[in-house]
Amino acid sequence: MPSDSSLLRIMPLAPASLFSCSQLTSLVLERCNIPALPPSFNGFPSLETLQLDVVNFAENGEKTFEALIAKSPLLRSLNCQYPSISGDDDDNGGNYCEWTIRAPNLKLLSFWAWEDYGWRVYDLPQIEEACVHLTGPDLARFLPGMTRVKGLCMVITVDTILEQLPYFMYLKDLALHTLLTKSSQVLSMLCILRNAPNLENLHIMLVQEQEDTGDIEVNMGLLDAQGTVGFFSRLKSFQLYDSMGHKNEMCFIEFVMSKATILQEIEIYIHEYSSKSMEDVYDELSQYKRASPHAEIIVNRYVPLFADYFISIVSACTNDIFIFQRRIRCTLQSLMYVYT
């Protein structure tokens, strides 16, 4: 099997002539090496959409990456999936110089990466929707630049605790792919929720680990210690997908129900391998104190392809990624177990 470096060499090189196409409005680069920008590069003044899928930037490509975005002043949509920069961790110990994504007109951002190459996001004044999957401390450098985001999808599976975050005053829809079995992930999630006072819709897809973690319980004292006054004060809808019905999951559900004063609906999707039936889950939920006594409780059967559907919605990052609740309800109507 070839090494990663040989795979990069196999990938074709983007032609230098590309950077003289100043009238481009949309650019898609897939599985190619991107060379350093030529001195004559004056930017893409008309570019509105940029998609980078599994591309590799030449050594010191941070500057190329930064300039490519900064010199596209009309950029409205950026979709970057698993980029890399030559001069990997073995060469520089993973210590990349910090550089900044500056895009004053960006409205849609989708950014997925396995490695941290030093990027951070400068204030995005026009941002509306963002989907972010980062696995290191770079997540904490991304979020401060997206305070105006209205719809946000995030993957939180790292141990870095997100602290000292700004307020997301415009955030109405939040979709998280995370665990409830580690205190670091729970605390990071709480930090985001605490700083989103106008959140209306919360969707959480749980990551189920290979080993049995059912006995790990979220300490309610830990939740209440986070300064939870006003938590979920505008939350109307809460969905939890792929639940096993473990103590930690039920504890978090109870926490939400006890804080959300205008909650209209709570939906729980039970994993097919859960030892609890839908009736068991509903009976337990019905015993919890509700800050909103009229909230409807809906317990759904597990749908095998549902997790893949959720991920496809999250990764798409299109204008309608946050209205999938309505479509799901239509397609799963016959499988729903509804209690009022």
From TrEMBL:
The lineage of its organism: Eukaryota, Viridiplantae, Streptophyta, Embryophyta, Tracheophyta. Residues 13-131 form the F-box/LRR-repeat protein 15/At3g58940/PEG3-like LRR domain. This is F-box/LRR-repeat protein 15/At3g58940/PEG3-like LRR domain-containing protein. It comes from Digitaria exilis. InterPro entries: FBL13/AtMIF1-like (IPR050232), LRR_dom_sf (IPR032675), LRR_FXL15/At3g58940/PEG3-like (IPR055411). Pfam families: LRR_At5g56370.
